[in-house]
Amino acid sequence: MTVHQHGRYSTPVDDLPSRAVPEAAVGRLAIYLRVLTSMIEQGVTTMSSEELAGAAGVNSATLRKDLSYVGSYGTRGVGYDTARLVEHIEQLLGLTRHHSVAVVGIGNLGHALANYGGFPDRGFPVTALFDVDEDLVGIPVGGLPVDHVNTIPEVCAERDVTIGVICTPARAAQTVCDLLVAGGVRCILNFAPVMLQVPSDVEVRRVDLAVELQILSFYQARRSSGRRAGTADPVAVIR
Amino acid sequence: MTVHQHGRYSTPVDDLPSRAVPEAAVGRLAIYLRVLTSMIEQGVTTMSSEELAGAAGVNSATLRKDLSYVGSYGTRGVGYDTARLVEHIEQLLGLTRHHSVAVVGIGNLGHALANYGGFPDRGFPVTALFDVDEDLVGIPVGGLPVDHVNTIPEVCAERDVTIGVICTPARAAQTVCDLLVAGGVRCILNFAPVMLQVPSDVEVRRVDLAVELQILSFYQARRSSGRRAGTADPVAVIR
DNA sequence: GCAACTTTGTTCCTGCGTTCACAAGCGGCT
DNA sequence: AGCCGCTTGTGAACGCAGGAACAAAGTTGC
Ligand SMILES: NC(=O)c1ccc[n+]([C@@H]2O[C@H](COP(=O)([O-])OP(=O)(O)OC[C@H]3O[C@@H](n4cnc5c(N)ncnc54)[C@H](O)[C@@H]3O)[C@@H](O)[C@H]2O)c1
Ligand SMILES: NC(=O)c1ccc[n+]([C@@H]2O[C@H](COP(=O)([O-])OP(=O)(O)OC[C@H]3O[C@@H](n4cnc5c(N)ncnc54)[C@H](O)[C@@H]3O)[C@@H](O)[C@H]2O)c1
Q1: Which residue has the higher pLDDT, B47 or B11?
Q2: Are B217 and A187 within 8 A, CB to CB?
Q3: What is the dihedral angle through the alpha carbons of B3, B9, B14, B18, rounded to the nearest 10 degrees?
Q4: In this predicted model, what pLDDT tens digit does every residue of A76-93 receive, in sequence order?
Q5: Which CATH number describes the domain made up of B101-211?
Q6: Which residue minimizes the CA distance to atom 6 of ligand 2?
C-alpha cells in the first residue's frame, strides 16, 4: 500500500491516519463493523465491496474509499477478509480498548440506557450513574447504584470515564456538562435539546429526537402537498 | 423495494413552491424553531440573524440562507419577527398539523418514549403502542394501552398514524416495519441497529446510539494518539 | 426629508465528500 | 506458466453545502 501524504503538518510517527477521515466515513465504518460481525457469526469469511456495500446501504465506491482510510487490506479479485477487516476498523475507531460510560439523569431515558445490554457488549461498559434526585441516589439501576451529581468529577476521574451521556432536562444539561468536563470527560453524548458550551478539546454529539421527528414531518408535508393540491395556502413564494 | 436510508431529500423534480431544501438545513430549521419558541416565552419579539445564529450555534450566513428557504420574512435593518418566523418555519416543516406517532416495542426504550411528554408538546401525539409480548398487551403505558403487533395495520390506518417508531430488537425490526408500511405509515424512526428495506416512498431515519458512541471513541483515540491535547484554547466553542 | 447605519437576501467562491471510471493486482483455470 | 476475469484502490470529475462579501432595503436620528 502506498501511503498517500495528505497535507499533514503533523510529524513523524503517526500510527493513525487521523484527520483525513471524514466524519461521515467514521459513521459508516461503524456500520460496516456491525454488518461484518453479523456476517462473521454466520460463517462468512470473505466479502466483496459490492456485497458489503449492499448490506450497509451505501455505494460500493464510497465503501472502498472508506476502507482505504483504514489501510488497504483487501485482496483484488477476491474481496475482504471479514475477520481482518473487523480488526482494523476496530483499531481505527479506537475500539481495542474499553470506553467507560457514565449516564447522568436517570429518568425515563436514563433508565433505558442503563438497562440496555447492547453497550457493554460493544465495549462501552456503563460504570457510573448520576442523578440529583436524593430518592434515586443509592438505588441500583441495571445493577449499578446511582450516585449524586455532586460526585461526578471525582467518580468520573476515579473510574476513568471517557464518555458522558446526558439525559437530564434541558435546563440542567449545561451544569452537568461542566461537571463531566471537570471530571476529565472529553466525549459527551447529549440527549437534552440544548447546545452545550464546551472547551474546544471536548467532543459533543447531540441526539435530538424532536428534530428527527420534525424532519420526518417535513418529508411528509412535502409528499402530501405534492399529491393532493388541496392545501390552498400559498406557501413559500418563489422569488 | 429500494434501500433508502438516511440523508436524501425528496424527489428529483421539484414540484413544490419552495426550492429544494437541503436536509441539513431542515435539521437546523428545527433547531431555530426551538430557540425561537424559547425566546418568545421570554418576551423577545425580534432577533437579528446574528443573535439567532449565535443561539443556535451556526454561522449567520448559513442561518440567513436557511431562512431564505422559508421565504424571506425578515426586515432589513431590524431582524426577524420571532412570532412570524416561527409560524413560517412550522409551515415549511409541516408542523401546522399534528402527526400521530406509533411506538412499536415497549421495552426499555419504548417505555421511555411512551412516557416522554416532549413529543405531544411539540405536535407529535403518541396515539398507539404495540408489542408482541402478550403480557404487555392491554397494559397502559403513559396512559395509553398497548396493542398487539398483529393489529398494527388496522390500528395505524384507523388512527391515522403518520410516524412509526421502531424500538424492537433488531431481528424483529424488518417485520414490524413491513406492518407499519402496510398500515399506511410513510415515515419511520428506527432505533434498531439494522438497515430497513422499504418502498421508495417511505422515509426512514435511523438513530443509532452505538454508532454515536463509536464516533466519540474515534475522536478519543485520535486525541490520545496525537498526544497534543493541550491546545490552550480555554473557552467555549459552540458546535 | 435626508443621511447614515443596520441587517437582510443573494451571489460567488471555496472546499469537501461522493461517485465514476479505470489501471493495477491477484486467484483460478487451462 | 501464462492468460482471463474479477475486484480492489485511487485519480479525477461532479455536485453540494457552507462561508465571505456585497448590494438592496428599511430604520433611526437629526
Ligand atoms: N424520554 C424520552 O424519550 C426523550 C426523548 C427525547 C429527548 N429526551 C430528552 O432527554 C432528557 C431526559 O428525558 P427524560 O424523559 O428521561 O426526563 P425525566 O424527567 O424522566 O428524567 C430526567 C432525570 O434527570 C434528573 N435530573 C434533573 N436535574 C438534574 C441535575 N441537575 N443533575 C442530574 N440529574 C438531574 C431528574 O431527577 C430525572 O431523574 C430531556 O432533556 C429530554 O428532553 C427524552
Ligand atoms: N435501550 C436502549 O437504551 C437502546 C439503546 C440503543 C439502541 N437500542 C435499540 O432499541 C431497540 C429496543 O431496545 P430496548 O432496550 O428497548 O429492548 P427491550 O428488549 O427492552 O425491548 C424490546 C421490546 O420489543 C418487544 N418485541 C420483541 N419482538 C417484537 C416484535 N416482533 N414486535 C413487536 N415488539 C416486539 C419486546 O417484547 C420488548 O418489549 C433494540 O433494537 C436496541 O438495539 C436500545
Answers
A1: B47
A2: yes
A3: 160
A4: 999 999 999 999 999 999
A5: 3.40.50.720
A6: B209
The grid cell for B43 is 418576551
B 89-128 near A (Cβ less than 8 A) = 91-95, 99, 101, 108-109, 111-113, 115-116, 118-119, 122-124
Task: Report which of B11, B27, B173 is spatially closest to residue A225, judged by C-alpha positions.
Answer: B11
Please give the share of chain A, as a percent, with pLDDT higher than 90. 82
Q: How many Cα atoms occupy the beta-carbon half-sphere of A112 within 13 Å? A: 20
Tens of pLDDT, residue by residue over A58-78, are: 999 999 999 999 987 899 999
Q: Which top CATH class is B23-92?
A: mainly alpha
C-alpha cell at B37: 419558541
Q: Given pLDDT bands bounded at 50, 70 and 90, which one contains residue A227?
A: very low
**Cα–ligand 1 centroid distance for A156 (angstroms):** 20
Q: Where are the domains of chain B?
A: 23-92, 101-211
B230 phi and psi angles, rounded to 5 deg = -80, 50
How much is the pLDDT for B84? Answer: 95
